[in-house]
UniProtKB/TrEMBL annotation:
Domain Histidine kinase per the UniProt entry, residue ranges: 70-303
Enzyme Commission numbers on file: 2.7.13.3
CDD domains named among the record's database cross-references: HisKA
Catalytic reaction list: ATP + protein L-histidine = ADP + protein N-phospho-L-histidine
Pfam families to which the protein is assigned, alphabetical: HATPase_c
Segments traversing the membrane: 12-31
Name of the molecule in the record: histidine kinase
Family matches, as InterPro entries: HATPase_C_sf, HATPase_dom, His_kinase_dom, HisK_dim/P_dom, HisK_dim/P_sf, Sig_transdc_His_kin-like_C
Organism: Azonexus hydrophilus
Classification of source organism: Bacteria, Pseudomonadati, Pseudomonadota, Betaproteobacteria, Rhodocyclales
Single GO term (MF): phosphorelay sensor kinase activity
Key words, A-Z: Membrane, Phosphoprotein, Transmembrane, Transmembrane helix
PROSITE patterns: HIS_KIN (PS50109)
């Protein structure tokens, strides 16, 4: 009898041990599968992150390309007329030298001066010089604005004058905006903001370009700035086409665009959202279809805002 009980217990023990082993084996296999999936997922996240960074970079490059085209146009105009003035001034100089040589040889007469239209030459020469000086001044200002806009010397977060940043962005974009809109500035007094200025300029640029694109013929873009105890803000309001609530739901998604194929990449607002978010701020949007839109960027006023 005892032997039978012992045998039964042994069998039970063996079955239990077997089951435990099986469960342990299954758990181990499950863990192994989970571990593999985890690594796969981590690799995918890294891949998505790298693609995201790449996309933001290509949007930046597309923005720079667009900007370069506008700036080239702005610079081309003064460079064009300064070049033509230099040609005319070259002719004038030649005529003057001929006259001076005749004077030196004691052979110049009043009729030589009249033939060279000396009085006109003298007047026009000064006018051409002044015009050329003004043209080169314009080129110098454009280059300075461009440098301010890109803030090449300041890639790190530091004290930044938001009004000045918006002003240089408006100047750099003047070619894109002037045919589309009258720009109204309603700038408030602002305390310096601890941020990466070039990035904020890029946000302002995206909002201004979107505003210009939303206007079909000619409209108004109003740029306002201000601050309260905790935040500095700036906003770009336009009298463009506006957005339906359905469109507004998607505007910050990468690649969402309602612009024709090949015109927009749909990354401008995604990039702007990223930048503002990194500065601890937010972008608010209000819009009415057919009436216009207003984008407000609000950034915390703190010297310790973590900017990554
Ligand atoms: N001011 C605005 N008025 C009307 N619609 C707007 C405005 N700003 C943005 N949108 C809408 O949001 C979409 C996404 O804007 P976003 O700037 O991200 O991309 P995009 O302008 O289409 O292309 P890009 O990459 O060249 O900026 C636009 O296609 C447009 O539908
Ligand atoms: Mg855009």
């Amino acid at each position: 009898m005892e032997a039978a009980v012992l045998k039964h217990r042994t069998e039970l023990l063996a079955t239990t041990a077997g089951t435990c082993l099986l469960v342990a084996l299954l758990a181990w296999r499950l863990l192994e599968v989970l571990r593999r999936r985890w690594f796969e997922l981590a690799a995918k996240i890294e891949e998505v992150d790298a693609t995201h960074r790449q996309l933001l970079q290509s949007e930046k490059l597309a923005g720079i390309g667009q900007l370069a085209a506008g700036v080239a146009h702005e610079i081309n105009n003064p460079v064009g007329f300064v070049n033509s003035n230099l040609g005319t001034l070259g002719n004038y100089s030649q005529q003057m030298i001929t006259l001076l040589e005749k004077c030196r040889a004691g052979q110049a007469s009043e009729s030589d001066f009249a033939a060279a239209d000396f009085d006109y030459l003298r007047r026009d020469l000064l006018e051409l010089l002044n015009e050329s000086r003004e043209g080169l001044g314009r080129v110098k200002r454009i280059v300075a604005d461009l440098k301010d806009f890109s803030r090449v010397d300041h890639a790190e977060a530091q004290e930044f004058d938001v009004n000045a940043g918006i002003e240089s962005t408006l100047n750099v974009l003047s070619n894109e905006l002037k045919y589309k809109a009258t720009v109204i500035r309603e700038f408030g007094e602002l305390p310096p903001l601890h941020c990466i200025g070039a990035q904020l300029n890029q946000v302002a640029m995206n909002l201004l370009l979107n505003a210009a694109h939303a206007i079909a013929e000619h409209g108004t873009i109003t740029v306002r700035t201000g601050h309260d105890a905790t935040h500095v803000w700036f906003e770009v309001a336009d009298t463009g086409c506006g957005m339906t609530p359905e469109i507004m739901q998607h505007i910050f998604e990468p690649f969402y665009t309602t612009r024709p194929v090949g015109k927009g990449t749909g990354l401008g607002l995604a990039l702007s959202y990223d930048i503002v978010h990194k500065h601890g701020g937010e972008i608010r949007v209000s819009s009415q279809p057919g009436e216009g839109s207003c984008f407000r960027v609000s950034l915390p006023r703190t010297d310790t805002a973590s900017v990554s």
